[in-house]
Amino acid sequence: MNSEIRSLEPKEVWNRFADLNAVPRASKKEEQVIAFMLDFGKKLGLETFKDNTGNVIIRKPATPGMENRKAVVLQSHLDMVHQKNADTDFDFATQGIEMYVAADWVKAKGTTLGADNGLGVAAIMAILESNEIPHPALEALFTIDEETGMTGAQGLEKGVLKGEILLNLDTEEDNEIGIGCAGGVDITATRTYKEEPVPEGAGAFRITVKGLQGGHSGMDIHKGLGNANKIMNRVLFDGFENYGLCIAGIDGGGLRNAIPRESSALVVVDKVSKEAFEFEFDELARTIKNELKTMEPSLTIAAEPAETPGAVMELGVQEGITKALYAAHNGVYRMSADMEGLTETSNNIARVIIKDGEIKISCLTRSSVDSSKTDLANTLRATFELAGCEVKLSGSYPGWQPNVNSPILKVLREKYETLFNEKPDVAACHAGLECGILGQNYPEMDMISFGPTIRGAHSPDERAGITSTQKFWKFLREILKDIPEKK
C-alpha cells in the first residue's frame, strides 16, 4: 500500500516519510523513533547525539563553497498525534501508518497521517543524506513531545545549538511564512462524587455523538466546528428536571490539542418519561444537526436502549457539572486587534471523563497575548471551581513574538516571490510552534517557519498535499542556497 507513496515526487522526501511512518511515535512514547533517528544519522557518518531530554541533534558540515554562510538549524518534531475513527481496528503501538493516494492528497486509512510534523522531519532527513544540495553548516534538531507539552523544546539546554538561523518546518499552508505563534496552558478540572442507586424502574440509554470533523485545536478553532463534549452536554442539560435523567458515565473527546469528534454517555431516565425523552431527544438532535449542517454534515446524535448500569452520579454534582460545562467557554475568545484574521485567544474543551465516582475535564487554552491567556484560564478556573472542582493549570508555554524586521524573513519573502511569482502570506498562527520556547534559551537566533499544505491535522481526516510538498521541497532547497554570509 505504501509503495504508491514511495513513487511520488519528490521521492527523496516521500521515501523518508514512509520510513518514518513505519515507526510508532506517539507523544511521550518516542523511544522507537529516537532510536530510528539516531541510527539514521550515524549510518550517514554524521555527528549524531541525543540530549538529556531525548531530542536528537544531527550535524552536517557545509558543502564546498558554503563554509562562510551562517549556520542553520533545521527543526521539526518527531512525535505525532494518534487519533483513529471508532470503527478502525489499528494499534498505534505496533503498526505503521497505512497510507494511500487520493487525487492530489496523501491520506491514512482511518487514522491520523503524521504529516504533522512528519513531512518536516522527512525533508530534513532528505537534506542530510543528499550529496547534491548546496547548504551551509546544518544542525538538524528533532524535538520530542511537541504535541502534548512541548517538553522537548523546553528541555533543550543553552549552548547545545550553534546555528544563527532556525528554519522551523511545521507550518501547514504552503503560501504562509510564519513569524509568530500562540502560547498555551493546560487546564484540568477534577472532583469526586458519590454513586447512587439507579432509580427503580428507570430505563437506560447509550447516547452517542459522532461523525464530527475534529481537527487542530489551534489552527481550526475559528472554523465553527462542532465540539462533541459541548454537544453532549447540551443534550444532557436539564435532563433530570425534564425526564428524571441521571448520568452513569461520560467518555468524550481525546487529546488536548484535538477538537473532540466523539462522545458517549450512559444515562437512565424515568420509566414514565421514556417516550417523552425519546421524542424530545430526537427533536433536539435534529435542531443541533440543522445548526451545524454546513460545517458538520456527517454529525450523528443517537440514543439507543442499553443495559441498566449499577449506579449513577449523585444529583447535586450532576447539576453542577452540567451547568459548568455549559458555561465553560469553548472556541474563539478574542480575535487579534493587531493582525487581521488571527485568533488571539481560544479554548478547547478537549476531554470529559465521568466514571466510577471521578470527574476529569481537560482543556487547552491558547493565546498570543499572555495576559489574555491568563484571563481566559481564570475564567475557566472560576467556572469549574463553582461546580466544586479542583482546578490545576500546568504546562504553560510562551508564544513567539513576531519580528517583522527579521533578516531571514527578508530572504524567504524575496525567494518566494521569485520562485512562485506571488507574494507569500506573512503571518502569525494560533497553533503552538516551538519557536517561542526555543527562543527563551536562544534569544539571538533568527527564526522562521514554513511547510507544505496539510489539512485536518490531529484528526483521521489529516491529509498532505502532493503538489504542495513538491513546492515546499523546492522552496527549502532554494532557501539553503541563499543563506546570508557570516558577519
Automatic annotation (TrEMBL):
The protein's Enzyme Commission number: 3.4.13.18
One example of a Gene Ontology biological process annotation: proteolysis
InterPro entries: Peptidase_M20, Peptidase_M20_dimer, Peptidase_M20C
GO cellular component annotations of the record: cytosol
Xref: CDD domains: M20_pepD (cd03890)
Entry GO MF terms: metal ion binding; metallodipeptidase activity
Residues covered by the Peptidase M20 dimerisation domain: 208-294
Top-level division of the source organism's lineage: Bacteria
Keyword Zinc applies: yes
Cofactor or coenzyme needed: Co(2+); Zn(2+)
Gene3D superfamilies: Zn peptidases
Key words, A-Z: Cobalt, Hydrolase, Metal-binding, Metalloprotease, Protease, Zinc
Catalytic activity: Hydrolysis of dipeptides, preferentially hydrophobic dipeptides including prolyl amino acids
Family the UniProt entry places it in: Belongs to the peptidase M20C family.
Name of the protein in question: Cytosol non-specific dipeptidase
Organism of origin: Sinomicrobium weinanense
